[in-house]
Amino acid sequence: VPELPEVETVRRGLLPLLAGRRIEAVEVLRDRPLRRQPAGPAAFAAAVAGAAVTTVERRGKYLWWVLDGAPVDALVAHLGMSGQFRVHDRAGPAPDYRGHERVRFLLDDGRALSFVDQRTFGWLLADRLVAGPAGPVPAAVAHVALDPLDPQFDAAATAQAMRRRRTELKRALLDQTLVSGIGNIYADEALWRVRRHGRTPVQTLGQAAARAVLDAAAEVMRTALAAGGTSFDPLYVNVNGESGWFARDLAAYGREGLPCRRCGAGIVRESFMNRSSYRCRRCQRTPRGLAGR
DNA sequence: GTTCGCACCTGAGCGC
DNA sequence: TGCGCTCAGGTGCGAA
Questions:
Q1: What whole-number distance in Å separates Cα of residue A78 and Cα of residue A84?
Q2: Strand C contacts (CB < 7 A) among A residues 162-201?
């Protein structure tokens, strides 16, 4: 599942492929990724075809190509659960994407870039840029908070904002309007690092503790990024089809029944927010008052 | 205004 | 062999 490190890995793969390239044509194979386009799939293709790509940017899990010479400013992409960008040379044989290729961009250098998405939660959108406190962003991304790897990210202010919520710690970490880029995997890893239970009420955290969770999330994502993104999930690969290598380093996520790397007690899996949470039953004790939940 | 729960979607894995 | 069930989970929207 692509979270910040995976999306950043994709951005770094896309940038040299796309910067300075012109999109000659857009082929929409399936409409679903364009469900957010107000005027529909044809409008998406018409808005993007002929444009040149200036650069590729990211906030949290949202990517966008900045466009020049188009009626819109940007092409926004969210990979959802299983979205990929894959590149191939049009002169060679077409790759087998097992029927999951959704949109194909024909580039002016003879290559094709395909948006491939098995579970179809990903989407593409031709959008305009709007002014934001941290610079211009697509309108569809304006509600998304800065991520912990953004140079302008203010950890102290985010920790304060987090403590003002009336919710639980893991919910706060997953709230993209509070801090972006963190998904289920890195939330569990960050919580393990600071020995916190995901159901800890955020208002019980001191400023230093709230800050420590955010710092842990940033650190675990930086480590994963250095390794090319987490990829125990075969659905996630970079633009060349290569997997990342971080899965071997996960301390909590997906390790049900295995010993905690820190204390040796068992990692347990619990249902939370209609998904799975993993924690060490000894290092990350259930907060007082929540026993049995 | 804030918080919460659910629909969306496909394929793998499993039990029967 | 094949059917049906469960699980994976980020986002956006409506409900509370």
A1: 10
A2: 174, 176, 183-185
